[in-house]
Amino acid sequence: MTLRALIFDVDGTLAETEELHRTAFNAAFAVDGLDWSWDRTLYRDLLRTTGGHERILVHARSLGVEVDAAALHQRKNRIYGARVAAGRLALRPGVAALIGQARREGMALAIATTTSRTNVTSLIGATLGAEAIGWFASIRTGEDVAAKKPDPEVYHLVLSDLGLPARDCLCFEDSQNGLRAALGAGLPTIVTPSLYSAGEDFSGAALVIETLEAFWRRPEFHADQEQRERRAAGG
Q1: Distance CA 53, CA 55 (A)
Q2: Do 56 and 73 contact (CB within 8 A), yes or no?
């Protein structure tokens, strides 16, 4: 593999965001006068459905009620964004170092996620700085696709933006749905299971590791790094 780009999922991969999403949902429900309260067990089940708007609809249908899911989801995202901006999240171990090393190596960076572009911008700005959003050559979100993960559409869009074959990219995911989407686009994928995805089936992943903290010290990366250095030197 000639490694030329790293592609990241967001929720659960860049940061353990899902607890903040869950509590933001509950806050939005309370503001709207709904007596819904998603505990961790229920939320784990709801995460089988990708997309917050879609989760609201699934839950409402299970109760036989109708709600304005779009308005609820927008309110939840505003609450979530404010909490992210207040410093309530940190990147998972090794993520910032991985991004920094990739930039030094001249690799492209990209994001492929089911969350909203606003949520991506909020997280990147709060954790890496306002200028960091410009480090990513492609950012594709749930707003860009007709079908969310596990459909591979978001990854096909990112690959098209990058102008690279899947074999030259490395993807980072945390969930089975995300892994299925990445594999569907032909992407070799590293999985770092998160709070809500631990125990899922990650068959097909190139590697499953607890965090990205020691990723750049792995022998397979250094072999590829040496190849890049030889090419740069004209060898």
Answers
A1: 5
A2: yes
